[in-house]
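Internal tracking record. Fields below are filled automatically when a chain is submitted to the structure queue. Please do not edit lines marked as system-generated. If the sequence contains nonstandard residues, flag them in the REMARKS field before resubmitting.
Queue: standard
Priority: normal
Entity type: single polypeptide chain
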Amino acid sequence: MKKTQQHTMWTMGLSEAAAGLLAAHAGSDYRIIALPPGHAPSALEMERDDPCLFWLTSEAWNAIASQREGKSQHLDLVPRVLVLEPGYSRDEIERALDSSFTDVIKPPLTRARVLDVLRRAVETRNLYHDILRMTREIFLEREMLARKNDTLSFLVTFLTRATESLDPADILGKVREDLALLLPVSAVHGIFWPPVADGGALEAELFVATSPDCPVNVEWVDLLLESARRLGNAPVAGYRVTHVPGMAEVVDATGCAVEPPSGPLPGRVILMPLRAGTEAMGALAILTDGSQSLGKDQAQALDSAMKHLALALKNAMIYREVKLQADHDALTRLHNRRSLDERLRTEFERHRRYGHSMSLLLLDLDHFKAINDTYGHQAGDAVLRELADVLRHGIRATDFAARYGGEEFVVILPHTEEAQGHMLAERLRHRIEQCRVTHHGVQLSATVSIGVAGFRPGAFANVEELVREADRALYLAKANGRNVVCTMSGCEDAEATG
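SYSTEM-GENERATED OUTPUT FOLLOWS
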């Protein structure tokens, strides 16, 4: 029986319990070497051990980083995993991203998470070995030196830039430029979707180089949707499109490629599936300058690049979803209280510094308890979601809507005087009043009372005073029969619901 190759991993600073869990989860295929805290491994140690991963705590990494002084760049070649300890802070995660950690593991150290990290480490290691193998071929076949060097340069550039950002649009905006090192590329378009259960439909996200005003935009959208249907073995139930100008070589004012024509012409499109493990998660449609016949080295490099791109995009989308969950209310999908507090303080300081006007709306659903008591909390949730939808579509792109708590909502209106804020609040009040929510065959309606406070330079010492004025205006609206908009100067007449 062929003996399985044993991989080596370094650890530093892990507790005895965490080290034990890591060893148990990794199994006999991995040899673990525990390094003493503060010891920066030398290049000779790295060559001797050939570690595939370096597991560290924040304290251990800080100790190494403080003594490196540019003498331990070789450690950047070893993928690092930050093992967070109980009581970790958000700053630790952000510092880990800045320090190029490949993974961050929150407690507890589960088997599934450890195996996932090990699997991706092996994939990265295999990719690295592919590059080494290609480099050896360069020296063995000197007549292929130029092509091999170009391929290696492409992979290094592609892999480095693919991991520089956690924004999918930013990652894809660099792909066309990077692929041009390998083959002549005019434009790149992509589609991605999260995993779905058997029998489910796909919810896709498209990134295209052409804008909606470009006549060939619909052709690319259709091509990508059909690719998703085939690769995902499921229909596409819904999708959204993001225009990424950097994905095209030359574009005009409408977002259309100028030269050559930007449609998906036969023989000029390379469709590359993107997979997370064995599961398809997306596809890239590469428009080349002409009919391309890829050599063996080009095909291998392109395949390796797509594997790494899939991993980078998967991580970016996971990060975006986690950030969305951290910053948004789960029920309404509006910003949550924590996100609101941060934004409100930022806007308050910015408007105070430059002497600009700003308005704050505080909304409260009238008689919301009666809806819950009469029709149930699920009906109340449906009303909250509908109100959030009205806010989402009724404000400007520069405005900021959030759930304040319970049945209360807040809207920040930058560069808006109190009178203008009052007008927008009245429009929102009217739209909410006209809405109807159907729940189990019953039509529900709701109204809101709105308090408006306008920020004027010198009027408020801090953001808390601005919020208190909006709260007092809201109280005034409730005292005036509800379903009205009030400032501290008074209320506009509106038909009240009582």
